Amino acid sequence: MKKGIYLLPNTLTLCGMLLGFYSILASLKGNYLHASWSILFAIIFDGLDGWVARLTHSTTRFGIELDSLSDLVAFGVAPSVLLYKWALIPFGRVGWVAAFWFLACGALRLARYNVQMGSTESKAFTGMPIPAAAAIVASLVLFYHEMWESLPGKNYGILGLTVLLAFLMVSTLRFHGAKEIDFRKRKPFWILVAFVIILMIVIMHPPVSLFLFAMIYLAGGIIENVILYMRKRKSERKGETR
User: Structure pTM?
Assistant: First the structure.
């Protein structure tokens, strides 16, 4: 701190925090679409600040701590308030407990990530990343508003999804993220083509496509972990029979 701080990555981090704060205000006013889009844009800034810090070799402990605080606001508090105001109020105490459970598990996920940084989290995420959980919540709101506009009273599916996402964040299941991709190395040409196709799909119908990709990520992560568990059990049985 005596030598100063790096402005660019930390400014991007603060932009993500600002979007998270705006999402909270929008949720309190009942503007759930703006709240959801703010969370999704905050995810972009969250990716940019880490990428810029690594590219410019400006990663510091201060930046890491600030990034965690920003993530807690944008991807912990903001989605929890959004979920509660949008869908969980009809459940009474159960609703606000579920919203807090999402926030608490997100905070625990961030704390565990900071402790494990550079060791067990070097290749894949242990537990669902909190930005991914927030993206699922935001895309769900956008998709639901696009298809049905309003919620018909109590929705147990959304309540269950809130609890599930919270458990996945603090679980030991393996999830993938963009940090596994090294953008400094050459990649096959088809990856660029696939990126263009995905971008075109998102532009054509953002609410539906974003929700679809979010659900694919959620289902794909669960299926991958089930396959890994079955392989592990199979190898253990083979070891016992030898």
Answer: 0.88
